[in-house]
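We modelled the chain as a single entity of 219 amino acids. Its sequence is:
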Amino acid sequence: MKQTLNRTVCTVLAAAGLAAALSACAPLVVGGAVMGTMMAVDRRTAGTQVEDEGIELRSANRLSESLGDRAHVNVTSFNRQVLLTGEVPTAQDRQRVEQIVMGVENVRSVVNDLAIMPSSSLSQRSNDTFITGKVRASLVDAKDITANAFKVVTERNIVYLMGRVTQREAQRATEIARGVSGVSKVVRVFEMITEEELRNIAPAPVVQDAPPASVPPRN
């Protein structure tokens, strides 16, 4: 029952994100859609999270000015590493997109996985959003990893996983994503950390003060 509930909630969230995306009808998509809204237990500093949001917005604006509606480009930034997915019409456009994003303030590296082909259809993007929701739900259901340590992006049934994770977490998340129906391939765009580093950045447990002992009323 708990697993079914988790998947239902995530599917609803995915549908809401899809509705917003389709209503905007924008050729450029910023960030990881629904996944970008889940910020709890993030292994980036608060300042880096703000920088990543700024990178995505500035990149989208500059790409829109340069390419207009000729391309469909997803810009996803995690810890100032930018993943480019989507479709562009020519090899020159692919290179141009990377150059533009590399020139954005605070960007430290770019992973360019843009395909040279016509832009994907709305039905394909709808399916990608649904796959993202299913992968996210599967990560939440797994009890041996922290789901919010991962950012999930899907493009033409290819799932991209981002995050600051250990080798153990990377392998486990990859196995989970590969097991989701509809996923054709899993691409890992991780920043690897050691188990010791994970222990150092993991949030400390919240310890609540014990309630004061009740004092019996005086006669």
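As a brief sanity check on the tokenised model: The first helix runs from residue 2 to 24. The first strand starts at residue 28 and ends at 30.
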